[in-house]
Specification:
globular, 9 helices, six-stranded antiparallel β-sheet, alpha+beta
């Protein structure tokens, strides 16, 4: 038996072996080709079955949807496509596999995955100086820890002008050893003796100054430090030493532009060395015990730049006991 399809609006036909019940408009023509002498049961002609469906838009749609149709020899009706059944069963596990596993997505292997934290810089918390809004890292790369923050003001035209915010850093372990070696029992509040021990010691410390006054010049900074150090040296020794006071900023060029946010770092290094950095560049390095003591005295002495900052530093010393 040979089965032919005839589309009403197109001049082509094709075997039924690749036909499925889909949308195009077809005339299904069934006729016998076997000789009656060999197939007596096919002595009568097969009925003509007409299936009216809508024609797809392209030949590719027809070809893609062609499937085998099984014909019932008794009724001559088309049964459900066997290939469609097989296709359905074959597609199901593929669909499940696609849902469970996506080949385009790389599998995560905890052992092979790089530690993202290793590629990121460690996020260090900061403390904000409330009067200026300047942030200070609570710990430096060399291990020094932030002990207090404050603000340096200067009286101009009868007004207190904020010049810079500052943070006081110290070697925490050495400060702890210093306190516990000299003072056996923790006092109820910081004492003058405790502050004086820090001032006179060789303890590693650093003052980070962040400029907040936008019209500040290098000559103004130099004058401010000369006045502050001169007063501190006079308190400590009873006399003046102008030559020594000028060394801390003496080599800093007036060409250095200080804008809001510029950083000055002054460190007391082992061996009573006072080092000054302006915007990351070393401008002076002076070995002088008196100069080191006078500099720390400006922040922790009897008349500090910021009394609240001094009290915070004292509270940090008490916490070491």
């Amino acid at each position: 038996m040979r089965l032919h399809l005839h589309e009403t609006s197109m001049n082509y036909s094709r075997p039924l072996a690749n036909f499925s019940l889909y949308k195009p408009h077809f005339t299904l023509n069934l006729q016998t080709t076997a000789k009656q002498k060999h197939n007596s049961y096919l002595s009568s002609s097969w009925p003509i079955i007409i299936i009216s469906v809508k024609m797809p838009t392209t030949m590719e749609d027809v070809t893609a949807k062609i499937d085998a149709v099984e014909i019932d020899p008794k009724s001559g009706l088309a049964l459900k496509s066997t290939m469609a059944k097989e296709k359905t069963f074959e597609d199901e596990p593929k669909t499940t596999e696609t849902t469970q596993e996506k080949p385009n997505e790389a599998k995560s292997d905890p052992e092979k995955e790089p530690n993202c934290a290793a590629f990121k810089e460690e996020e260090i918390p900061v403390e904000v100086e409330p009067k200026t809004g300047v942030s200070f890292a609570v710990k430096l790369e060399d291990g020094k820890q932030l002990k207090a923050v404050g603000v340096r003001k200067k009286s101009m035209l009868g007004m207190g002008i904020k010049i810079y915010g500052f943070g006081i850093y110290a070697d925490n372990e050495k400060l702890k050893d210093l306190m516990q070696s000299k003072i056996g029992k923790a006092p109820s509040k910081p004492t003058k003796e405790m502050y004086q021990m820090v001032i006179d010691s060789d303890l590693g410390m650093m003052m980070r100054l962040v400029i907040v006054f936008s019209n500040l010049t290098m000559s103004m900074v130099r004058k401010n430090f000369d006045e502050g150090l001169g007063a501190a040296i006079k308190k400590l020794t009873g006399g003046k030493n102008e030559e020594l006071t000028k060394k801390i900023m003496g080599e800093a060029s007036d060409d250095i532009k200080l804008t809001s946010g510029s950083v000055i770092e002054i460190s007391r290094l082992p061996g009573y060395v006072l080092q000054t950095k302006v915007k990351g560049e070393i401008v002076s390095k002076v070995e002088s015990e008196l100069l080191c003591r006078a500099f720390i005295y400006m922040y922790l002495g009897d008349d500090p730049f910021d009394k609240e900052a001094k009290e915070k530093f004292g509270a940090s010393m008490l916490s070491l006991f």
